[in-house]
Amino acid sequence: MASKYPRSMRGCLPLWILILEAALIIIFFFFASYDSSTKNQKMVVTQGAVLQDVMVMAALGLGFLTSSLWRYGWSSVAFNLFMLALGVQWAVLLDGVLEHPPSGKVVIKLSRIREATMSAMSVLISMGAILGKANLAQLVLLVLMEVTAFSATRMISQQFLSVDDHISMMHIHVFAAYFGLTVAWCLSRPLPKEAEEKEQRTTSPSLFAMLGTLFLWMFWPSFNSALLPVPHERKNGVFNTYYALAVSAVTAISLSALAHPQGKISMTHIHNAVLAGGVAVGASCHLIPSPWLAMVLGLVAGLISIGGAKCLPVCFNRVLGIHDTCGVHHTFGLPGLLGGITYIGLMVHQISWSKDPLNMFQALFDTGALSLSMAMGLATGLLTGLILNLKIWKAPHAAKYFDDQAFWEFPHLAVGF
User: 40: alpha, beta or left, given left = phi > 0 and alpha = psi -120 to 50?
Assistant: First the structure.
């Protein structure tokens, strides 16, 4: 039986990717250089450790988190690595260009690679909404457009709304979730029965997905505190993230059992909801003065995530026509909104004590930055989704959704797909 995967992809996909990579190499040759400074070696060691933590989250954590589909495990993990590698290269260049370097060259530092890795994670989050429904050519375009949009959003927030690096980065969850949902809405097609069967989760892949969850759970404090410059704030960020994650994990397991008629726990709920506390506490982790506040935030985030997992799929699929494969909305979107609103609330509380009118303007700017992230995610996601819908990308047929055989060689099979 001949392969149903479009033959023309073999001719255009490798060529398109290799030309893109060659263009990046040329740009790096003319417009990038390493940082030659030898100052503050202790800071270099610290930044290297944080970069390693963030890389583990991106490559292993998010890679395996989305690997629970029955017949899409290979693509979930490998495409995640591909998008991360391409996204980091593109983000390094974009961040450098947006800073307008006086020498005309992008100076590559560990801190720049760390921020580029965190920016590229926006694509890995969004990918969860369209997982199994796009080919590699579409994902390449998704990387370029989303990293560009997220970097532009951060630049606008920092230069025009006076938002610092940490807060603009912590809006990644809201931006990525609504970007991915809008792209999923554009790509949504009715799933045939065979595709619905392939979307089911099974024991072994779910265990691998739990491995991804554990990596994210362990390293999330490093992610939340990575861009905090003050040691005291960084310490508070680590502590509060751990407390929020611990409570959201306990809440998720308990509430999952409560929501089942026979009191059984859903592994899908655990994959997502135990991380909700880390997402929700991200923006305000350095401002929370007491552990009980972080624990309350983790509790509420766990409740929202489990509630969303139970109720939102029906609403999204039947009413809005959005098929969110990995539950990006209730894993990252809703907890991210909770975290942004919490940060604004804490800022307003500080203003009520200080009575400084300038701080009131900053609270308004912070509200604008959160709204900007959501609006930019929706708008650029819509634009990207419309472009990805063009026939030139030769999107996989709905009958071949969630199937590794559309993309990978299976030597143990006697016939092709």
Answer: left
